[in-house]
Amino acid sequence: MSERDHDYEDAGLVAGLEIHQQLDTATKLFCDCPTELREPEESSRRFTRYLHPTRSELGELDDAALEESRVDREFEYLAYDTTCLVEEDEEPPHRLDEEAMETTLEIAQLLDARPVDQANVMRKLVVDGSNTSGFQRSTLIATDGEIETEEGSVRIEDLLLEEESAKRVEETEEGVRYSLDRLGIPLVEIGTSPDIRSPAQAREAAERIGMLLRSTGKVKRGLGTIRQDVNVSIAEGARVEIKGVQSLDDIDDIVRTEVGRQLELVAIRDELAARNAAVDQPEDVTEVFAGTDSGVIGGALSSGGSVMGVRLRGFDGLVGREIAPNRRLGTELSDHAKRHGAGGIFHTDELPAYGVTEGEVADLREAVDAEPEDAVAIVADSGETARTAIGAVADRARAAVAGVPEETRGANEDGTTRYLRPLPGAARMYPETDVPPVKPDRSEVETPELLTEKVGRYEREYDLDRGLAEQVAYGRRMPVFERAVGEGVDPTLAATTLESTVTELRRDGVAIENVSEEQFAGALALARDDDLPTGNVGDLLSALADAPELTAREAVEREDLGGASEDEVREAVREVVERNEEQVHEEGMGAFSGLMGEAMGALGGQADGEAVSAALREEIQKRS
Amino acid sequence: MNPGDRVRADRGDRTYEGVVLPSSTDAHLVVKLDGGYNVGIDREAASVDVLAEGVHDIGEARDAEGERSAVEFDDELPTIALISTGGTIASTVDYRTGAVTARFDAEDVLRAVPDLAGRANYRGRVVANILSENMEVPIWQELASAVSEEIEAGADGVVIMHGTDTMQFSASALSFMLETPVPIVFTGSQRSADRPSSDNVMNAVCAVEAAKADCAEVLVCMHATGSDDRCALHRGTRVRKNHTSRRAAFETVGSGPLGTIDYDTEEAVFHRDHQRRNESELALSPALADDVDLLKFTPGMDPALLDAMAGKSGVVIEGTGLGHVHTDLIPRIEELVDDGTTVVMTSQCLDGRVCDRVYDTGRDLLDAGVIEAGDTLPGTAKVKLMWALANADDPAEAMETSLSGELRRRSTPWA
């Protein structure tokens, strides 16, 4: 279904984006710890906490927070030698990190957004434990920006600077375990207005924003460092927030599929209306399955559980109707059952199957008085879970009668989405009194060169072909490239090393991500100074990948990669010339290119071409 | 235009719409936008229209002085008096300054800490509404009287909510002023009550459990660790705030705490000797000498500081090491003593006992008439001297005797 393109104007598609990007600053947003990710095993201390709901500054208690806190969950936190008391909520936050503020103002400039006169740090209530404080610090830095796409401009509503949350490690018996390494890394959030009208425009807008962000050279790269949320609605549908689109390439698919899903739900709604559909109260149908061969149902019953069913009047054939690739209305019902702890549902559009017999289906229909045009959904689980889950299923089925429900959904890898939770209410926010307001200082902010501009300049000034120029400019080692070229390294050598060589090494299983910017720059500088034959650059990087503590020069010495000495070159060249004395005698300099290859071969790539060629010229001259 | 009004501010080519907040300054109008974010808008550069007046009632703090709160009574439960003096545990955001200030009364604390419900019948009472750095001697006396009244009226235990900065001084003061048949438990919080992670809930719950326990002493009940797992119960005269911000800032100096309250099981466990319920009769001796000072000696100290002590009835010196000051200061100290000032020596080592018989300086100090406070903490010694000068027949002897567990005869830090 995602293959089919819809008439988006006709459908009344309205979409907006929310893009979260981690900044690559030296220290965290509110303390002086490094922004370094760690493995849970490296943690050196741990502690546990509870969170309690609080009144907002206007005296209101947050219902959602209250709801959440009723479940008495214990949060465990892993701390490291790279985290401090601020992450543990044991020390007030330090002042807002200046580097993060500068980068955010740079981003504001690129988004054509206007910074506020005075930025006020806020606390956004979050009681799921992902922030030790129970809130996320978030600051509105700029508003009213705009980016261009082929289908028209997209307004930027706001640019926020926030702290990244703690990473969820796993569920524990009492609650959740979180890791503090990520907590406090600066994060910008860019929200667009709902100006997007097609899947292609959504993708283009996201790509444009991504390009602008990377143009600063100060954003983190790699998995999880950028997260994209998409809000989608159609005229007859409802606002749906889709969280956690990991890849830019998926955005158009996600929007297309969501439009299709909403259109299908609208069609189902119309069909249900025509059939006068309704949803009954759930009832216990355990008896129907007393002697069942179904593994799922039998398993639930044998551990003392029950089977709850609900008659869906007028739903026959519609529960099994596909609304997105491999997802049916039944899948939506099942998502709701799962959120309430059940494994899923069975419904009559797919039965008999899964060990449920035709006879049992007939008995089930009879048990709930279902007519042929009705469908029946069932949940088998422990009594309490089965009851709450079937209630959620019935609620979702009722929503189908009304049309498309507003909700928060999560992006699946295949471009479809799944139900996560209801839309959040307005965020509960109150001022972060521990951090004084900041006046954004725009005087120091430079406008960075855009990546699109960089590509042009690399082609023009460095003579790189377009493909390589793009690879370098958009690649994560662009800052190393610029630094190396600035230090006099040949641009082609720098570019091929940072892209082709690195790709080959990675393919060969070298842990190239261990090589630091400093080591890359060092390796290229050695090549520039002829202290490293270009043929050895790959070997050096490979050695550095295993020795993060060494400088490039130390690794060259340890691995003996410095190449042939001047004497060795001279010796090798002399041998080649002597072996071909006759040819030299006859052809003079004409023999040069032939012998050059032989000499390079004899040195096994351990010598710099220029040094060999100089020595060869000299030796030929001596003899001709 | 007033706080609570809904306004539209035009600023250059932007328009902000929202509710005016009292944290606005002369330079910046602070507006809460519909999304919840606050922004400061340059007043001079913006033109502002009021769209609607008083959309939000951001009212002033209620004057809670002396207010008594009524709570439903359950015969099965003990009665605990909750006395508020202000501090972080009962604080909220101040719109004017943007800072955190104390402004809840005891009933508000009950409302803010629903977990307290069902543990006891509460009698709420507000003695003061101050940040604890603003604590003063008359408030100690008022507090002691209030506690005494509550016990007399049948309270089975007393919980005092207090700012953490000077909690140890107030705990000492009550330790000397009161003889008590029931627990008197100080508690507070290191992280303000307006955040979900505040330690106030667990501290308050554990303090109430401590007030129900069988330990009739003045205690400080605060987090034992950085986790929300248990609170330590410190003897009021041996406790000290040893960290500016951590939850587990309070420590018993020279030994471990008397006991702990497990947050999960609510169980009180005592590891050290303590006074049981009803071993003492209720007695109140609230008189305090208000001209006592604590003087910390450090190298380079201006001798004039000692001159400024002339005429005071008492001075506690926080000396170096075993209890020393610069030799040149000894004659001045001798003059003080001769003029009738009681001079008491403690050590800035905090841990350990002063002993002025080991070195010449010490012997000279003793000869000058300085009284050794043993291993009494300097802050505790100051409060004790204030009390001793007003209540003891022989203040010097009192300073060398343990009155409320503040001075130990045996040095057994491992015990």
From TrEMBL, chain A:
Sorted UniProt keywords: ATP-binding, Ligase, Nucleotide-binding, Protein biosynthesis
Short name of any one Pfam family annotated for the protein: GatB_Yqey
Stretches the record annotates as Disordered: 427-447
Ranges for domain Asn/Gln amidotransferase: 479-620
Source organism superkingdom: Archaea
Annotated InterPro entries: Asn/Gln-tRNA_amidoTrfase_suB/E, Asn/Gln-tRNA_Trfase_suB/E_cat, Asn/Gln_amidotransferase, Asn/Gln_tRNA_amidoTrase-B-like, GAD-like_sf, GAD_dom, GatB_C_1, GatB_Yqey_C_2
Keyword Protein biosynthesis: yes
Catalytic reaction list: L-glutamyl-tRNA(Gln) + L-glutamine + ATP + H2O = L-glutaminyl-tRNA(Gln) + L-glutamate + ADP + phosphate + H(+)
Keyword hit for Ubl conjugation: no
SMART domains: GatB_Yqey (SM00845)
EC number: 6.3.5.-
GO molecular function, one term: ATP binding
GO biological process, one term: translation
Function according to Swiss-Prot or TrEMBL: Allows the formation of correctly charged Gln-tRNA(Gln) through the transamidation of misacylated Glu-tRNA(Gln) in organisms which lack glutaminyl-tRNA synthetase. The reaction takes place in the presence of glutamine and ATP through an activated gamma-phospho-Glu-tRNA(Gln). The GatDE system is specific for glutamate and does not act on aspartate.
Family, per entry: Belongs to the GatB/GatE family. GatE subfamily.
HAMAP family hit by this protein: GatE
Quaternary structure (record): Heterodimer of GatD and GatE.
Name of this chain's protein: Glutamyl-tRNA(Gln) amidotransferase subunit E
Lineage: Archaea, Methanobacteriati, Methanobacteriota, Stenosarchaea group, Halobacteria
The encoding gene: gatE
TrEMBL record, chain B:
Entry EC number(s): 6.3.5.-
UniProt xrefs under Gene3D superfamilies: 2.30.30.520, 3.40.50.40, L-asparaginase, N-terminal domain
Key words, A-Z: ATP-binding, Ligase, Nucleotide-binding, Protein biosynthesis
Enzyme class: ligase
Active site, renumbered: T88, T164, D165, K241
GO molecular function, one term: asparaginase activity
Gene Ontology biological process terms from the UniProt entry: translation
Coiled coil stretches, renumbered: none
PROSITE patterns on file: ASN_GLN_ASE_1, ASN_GLN_ASE_2, ASN_GLN_ASE_3
SUPFAM superfamilies, sorted: GatD N-terminal domain-like (SSF141300), Glutaminase/Asparaginase (SSF53774)
Domain GatD N-terminal residue range list: 1-51
Task performed by this protein: Allows the formation of correctly charged Gln-tRNA(Gln) through the transamidation of misacylated Glu-tRNA(Gln) in organisms which lack glutaminyl-tRNA synthetase. The reaction takes place in the presence of glutamine and ATP through an activated gamma-phospho-Glu-tRNA(Gln). The GatDE system is specific for glutamate and does not act on aspartate.
HAMAP family: GatD
Oligomer status and interactors: Heterodimer of GatD and GatE.
Name of this protein: Glutamyl-tRNA(Gln) amidotransferase subunit D
Taxonomic lineage of the native organism: Archaea, Methanobacteriati, Methanobacteriota, Stenosarchaea group, Halobacteria
